[in-house]
Task: inverse folding
Protein backbone atom coordinates (compact mmCIF):
# COMPACT_ATOMS: atom_id res chain seq x y z
CA UNK A 1 0.00 0.00 0.00
CA UNK A 2 2.84 2.38 0.83
CA UNK A 3 5.19 1.49 -2.04
CA UNK A 4 5.52 5.17 -2.96
CA UNK A 5 7.53 5.59 0.24
CA UNK A 6 10.39 3.39 -0.94
CA UNK A 7 13.46 5.64 -1.08
CA UNK A 8 15.82 5.59 -4.01
CA UNK A 9 18.77 3.20 -3.62
CA UNK A 10 21.86 4.83 -2.14
CA UNK A 11 25.40 3.59 -2.08
CA UNK A 12 26.65 6.05 0.56
CA UNK A 13 26.08 5.69 4.29
CA UNK A 14 22.49 6.73 5.04
CA UNK A 15 22.25 10.39 5.97
CA UNK A 16 21.13 9.95 9.55
CA UNK A 17 23.26 6.90 10.40
CA UNK A 18 25.45 9.01 12.75
CA UNK A 19 22.39 9.53 14.96
CA UNK A 20 21.74 5.82 15.33
CA UNK A 21 18.63 6.15 17.49
CA UNK A 22 15.48 8.21 17.06
CA UNK A 23 14.37 9.48 20.47
CA UNK A 24 11.12 11.11 19.32
CA UNK A 25 8.43 9.45 17.20
CA UNK A 26 4.75 8.57 17.32
CA UNK A 27 4.79 5.05 15.90
CA UNK A 28 2.78 3.35 18.65
CA UNK A 29 -0.52 2.90 16.79
CA UNK A 30 -3.83 4.36 17.87
CA UNK A 31 -2.81 6.32 20.98
CA UNK A 32 -2.43 9.89 19.70
CA UNK A 33 -2.28 11.84 16.43
CA UNK A 34 0.47 9.56 15.10
CA UNK A 35 0.27 6.19 13.37
CA UNK A 36 -3.18 4.62 13.18
CA UNK A 37 -2.14 1.02 12.48
CA UNK A 38 0.73 -1.45 12.58
CA UNK A 39 0.81 -1.31 8.78
CA UNK A 40 1.34 2.45 8.80
CA UNK A 41 3.98 2.15 11.51
CA UNK A 42 5.87 -0.49 9.54
CA UNK A 43 5.82 1.62 6.37
CA UNK A 44 7.17 4.64 8.25
CA UNK A 45 9.74 2.63 10.19
CA UNK A 46 11.16 1.12 7.02
CA UNK A 47 11.79 4.63 5.75
CA UNK A 48 13.37 5.56 9.09
CA UNK A 49 15.68 2.55 8.85
CA UNK A 50 16.63 3.33 5.25
CA UNK A 51 17.43 6.89 6.33
CA UNK A 52 19.91 5.54 8.89
CA UNK A 53 18.05 4.88 12.14
CA UNK A 54 18.99 1.50 13.61
CA UNK A 55 17.03 1.99 16.83
CA UNK A 56 14.02 3.98 17.99
CA UNK A 57 12.07 4.87 21.10
CA UNK A 58 8.30 5.37 20.88
CA UNK A 59 7.19 8.62 22.52
CA UNK A 60 3.39 9.02 22.43
CA UNK A 61 1.81 12.28 23.52
CA UNK A 62 0.70 12.82 27.09
CA UNK A 63 -1.47 15.88 26.87
CA UNK A 64 -4.53 16.68 28.97
CA UNK A 65 -7.33 16.48 27.96
CA UNK A 66 -6.60 15.68 24.31
CA UNK A 67 -4.41 12.62 24.90
CA UNK A 68 -4.99 11.46 28.49
CA UNK A 69 -2.74 8.43 28.09
CA UNK A 70 -1.98 6.19 31.04
CA UNK A 71 1.55 4.82 31.37
CA UNK A 72 0.50 1.27 32.21
CA UNK A 73 -1.74 1.09 29.14
CA UNK A 74 0.98 2.53 26.90
CA UNK A 75 3.49 -0.05 28.13
CA UNK A 76 1.06 -2.88 27.36
CA UNK A 77 0.33 -1.50 23.89
CA UNK A 78 4.05 -1.23 23.24
CA UNK A 79 4.60 -4.86 24.26
CA UNK A 80 1.75 -5.92 21.97
CA UNK A 81 3.27 -3.93 19.12
CA UNK A 82 6.62 -5.69 19.57
CA UNK A 83 4.91 -9.08 19.52
CA UNK A 84 2.94 -8.20 16.41
CA UNK A 85 6.07 -7.10 14.58
CA UNK A 86 7.98 -10.24 15.56
CA UNK A 87 5.12 -12.47 14.46
CA UNK A 88 4.99 -10.59 11.15
CA UNK A 89 8.72 -11.24 10.69
CA UNK A 90 9.26 -7.52 10.22
CA UNK A 91 12.65 -6.76 8.75
CA UNK A 92 14.39 -3.60 7.66
CA UNK A 93 13.02 -1.50 10.51
CA UNK A 94 14.74 0.08 13.52
CA UNK A 95 15.00 -1.99 16.68
CA UNK A 96 12.35 -1.07 19.22
CA UNK A 97 14.39 0.13 22.18
CA UNK A 98 11.65 1.19 24.54
CA UNK A 99 8.64 3.38 25.10
CA UNK A 100 8.67 6.78 26.77
CA UNK A 101 6.49 9.83 26.25
CA UNK A 102 6.31 13.37 24.98
CA UNK A 103 4.84 15.20 27.95
CA UNK A 104 3.04 18.48 27.40
CA UNK A 105 3.65 21.00 30.18
CA UNK A 106 -0.04 21.68 30.73
CA UNK A 107 -2.62 21.94 33.52
CA UNK A 108 -2.14 18.30 34.47
CA UNK A 109 1.65 18.34 34.45
CA UNK A 110 2.14 19.42 38.08
CA UNK A 111 0.32 16.31 39.29
CA UNK A 112 2.62 14.11 37.22
CA UNK A 113 5.63 15.79 38.78
CA UNK A 114 4.28 15.17 42.28
CA UNK A 115 3.62 11.51 41.45
CA UNK A 116 6.90 11.00 39.55
CA UNK A 117 4.73 9.43 36.86
CA UNK A 118 6.80 9.55 33.70
CA UNK A 119 8.14 7.13 31.10
CA UNK A 120 11.68 8.25 30.36
CA UNK A 121 13.79 8.21 27.20
CA UNK A 122 16.67 5.84 27.79
CA UNK A 123 15.47 5.42 31.37
CA UNK A 124 16.67 8.88 32.44
CA UNK A 125 15.60 11.69 30.07
CA UNK A 126 12.21 13.37 30.28
CA UNK A 127 10.98 14.52 26.86
CA UNK A 128 8.79 17.59 27.31
CA UNK A 129 6.94 19.91 24.97
CA UNK A 130 5.15 23.25 25.30
CA UNK A 131 1.99 24.55 23.74
CA UNK A 132 2.45 25.83 20.19
CA UNK A 133 0.15 28.74 20.97
CA UNK A 134 1.00 30.22 24.37
CA UNK A 135 3.93 30.36 26.74
CA UNK A 136 4.06 28.28 29.90
CA UNK A 137 3.30 30.28 33.02
CA UNK A 138 5.72 29.60 35.86
CA UNK A 139 8.16 27.70 33.64
CA UNK A 140 11.17 28.30 35.91
CA UNK A 141 9.41 26.66 38.82
CA UNK A 142 8.36 23.68 36.68
CA UNK A 143 11.93 23.09 35.52
CA UNK A 144 13.30 23.58 39.03
CA UNK A 145 10.84 21.03 40.46
CA UNK A 146 11.85 18.50 37.79
CA UNK A 147 15.53 19.02 38.40
CA UNK A 148 15.07 18.66 42.15
CA UNK A 149 13.76 15.19 41.34
CA UNK A 150 16.91 14.53 39.26
CA UNK A 151 15.21 14.46 35.87
CA UNK A 152 17.33 15.24 32.81
CA UNK A 153 15.02 17.39 30.70
CA UNK A 154 14.81 17.41 26.91
CA UNK A 155 12.69 20.09 25.26
CA UNK A 156 11.15 18.85 22.03
CA UNK A 157 11.26 21.06 18.91
CA UNK A 158 12.05 24.48 20.45
CA UNK A 159 12.21 25.86 16.91
CA UNK A 160 8.46 25.37 16.54
CA UNK A 161 7.34 27.66 19.37
CA UNK A 162 6.38 30.91 17.61
CA UNK A 163 6.73 33.01 20.76
CA UNK A 164 10.47 32.19 20.99
CA UNK A 165 13.03 33.53 18.56
CA UNK A 166 16.29 31.69 17.97
CA UNK A 167 17.96 34.38 20.10
CA UNK A 168 15.31 34.35 22.84
CA UNK A 169 16.63 35.12 26.30
CA UNK A 170 14.13 32.60 27.64
CA UNK A 171 15.62 29.84 25.51
CA UNK A 172 19.08 30.94 26.60
CA UNK A 173 17.86 30.72 30.20
CA UNK A 174 16.67 27.14 29.63
CA UNK A 175 20.09 26.26 28.21
CA UNK A 176 21.74 27.85 31.25
CA UNK A 177 19.53 25.65 33.44
CA UNK A 178 20.85 22.55 31.65
CA UNK A 179 17.83 21.74 29.48
CA UNK A 180 18.66 19.73 26.36
CA UNK A 181 17.15 20.80 23.02
CA UNK A 182 15.85 18.37 20.38
CA UNK A 183 15.18 19.79 16.93
CA UNK A 184 12.90 18.04 14.45
CA UNK A 185 14.71 16.87 11.32
CA UNK A 186 11.75 17.89 9.19
CA UNK A 187 12.05 21.47 10.43
CA UNK A 188 15.33 21.60 8.49
CA UNK A 189 13.48 21.27 5.17
CA UNK A 190 10.69 23.71 6.02
CA UNK A 191 8.06 21.05 6.76
CA UNK A 192 6.56 23.32 9.46
CA UNK A 193 7.29 26.57 7.63
CA UNK A 194 10.22 28.87 6.95
CA UNK A 195 10.26 30.32 10.46
CA UNK A 196 10.95 27.03 12.25
CA UNK A 197 13.44 26.10 9.52
CA UNK A 198 15.45 29.26 10.03
CA UNK A 199 15.35 28.97 13.81
CA UNK A 200 16.39 25.30 13.71
CA UNK A 201 19.55 26.05 11.76
CA UNK A 202 20.33 29.09 13.90
CA UNK A 203 19.98 27.09 17.13
CA UNK A 204 22.25 24.39 15.77
CA UNK A 205 24.83 26.99 14.81
CA UNK A 206 24.68 28.38 18.34
CA UNK A 207 25.50 24.92 19.71
CA UNK A 208 22.17 24.76 21.53
CA UNK A 209 20.94 21.49 19.99
CA UNK A 210 22.01 18.14 21.43
CA UNK A 211 19.48 15.89 19.70
CA UNK A 212 17.66 15.50 16.40
CA UNK A 213 14.43 13.53 16.09
CA UNK A 214 12.04 12.54 13.35
CA UNK A 215 8.84 13.30 15.31
CA UNK A 216 7.43 10.75 12.86
CA UNK A 217 3.62 10.64 12.81
CA UNK A 218 2.49 9.14 9.52
CA UNK A 219 3.39 8.47 5.89
CA UNK A 220 3.33 12.17 5.03
CA UNK A 221 6.17 12.64 7.51
CA UNK A 222 7.92 9.58 6.08
CA UNK A 223 7.91 11.06 2.59
CA UNK A 224 9.33 14.28 4.02
CA UNK A 225 12.07 12.28 5.80
CA UNK A 226 13.06 10.82 2.42
CA UNK A 227 13.33 14.36 1.07
CA UNK A 228 15.40 15.41 4.10
CA UNK A 229 17.77 12.48 3.65
CA UNK A 230 18.59 13.73 0.12
CA UNK A 231 18.85 17.42 1.03
CA UNK A 232 22.42 18.61 0.39
CA UNK A 233 22.43 21.15 3.21
CA UNK A 234 21.29 18.53 5.70
CA UNK A 235 23.83 16.01 4.40
CA UNK A 236 26.61 18.57 4.96
CA UNK A 237 25.21 19.37 8.40
CA UNK A 238 25.30 15.71 9.40
CA UNK A 239 28.88 15.40 8.17
CA UNK A 240 30.19 18.25 10.33
CA UNK A 241 27.83 18.46 13.32
CA UNK A 242 27.87 16.06 16.26
CA UNK A 243 24.67 15.18 18.07
CA UNK A 244 24.20 13.02 21.15
CA UNK A 245 21.43 10.62 20.07
CA UNK A 246 23.76 7.63 20.15
CA UNK A 247 24.62 8.27 23.79
CA UNK A 248 21.08 8.43 25.10
CA UNK A 249 20.89 4.75 26.07
CA UNK A 250 24.49 4.58 27.23
CA UNK A 251 25.55 4.23 30.84
CA UNK A 252 28.00 7.05 30.34
CA UNK A 253 26.80 10.53 31.38
CA UNK A 254 26.13 12.94 28.55
CA UNK A 255 28.28 16.06 28.59
CA UNK A 256 26.57 19.30 27.62
CA UNK A 257 27.11 23.00 27.93
CA UNK A 258 25.33 23.09 31.26
CA UNK A 259 26.07 26.03 33.53
Result:
Amino acid sequence: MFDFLKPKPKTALPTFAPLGIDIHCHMLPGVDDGSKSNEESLACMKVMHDAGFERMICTPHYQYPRFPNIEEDIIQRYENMKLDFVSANAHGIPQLKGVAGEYRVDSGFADRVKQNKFLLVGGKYLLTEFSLHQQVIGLDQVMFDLQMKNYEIILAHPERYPYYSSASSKLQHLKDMGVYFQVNILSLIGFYGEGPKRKAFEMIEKGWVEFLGTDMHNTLYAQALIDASHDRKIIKLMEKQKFLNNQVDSLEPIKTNKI
Summary: The domain at 19-241 is CATH 3.20.20.140 (TIM Barrel). The chain has a mean pLDDT of 91.
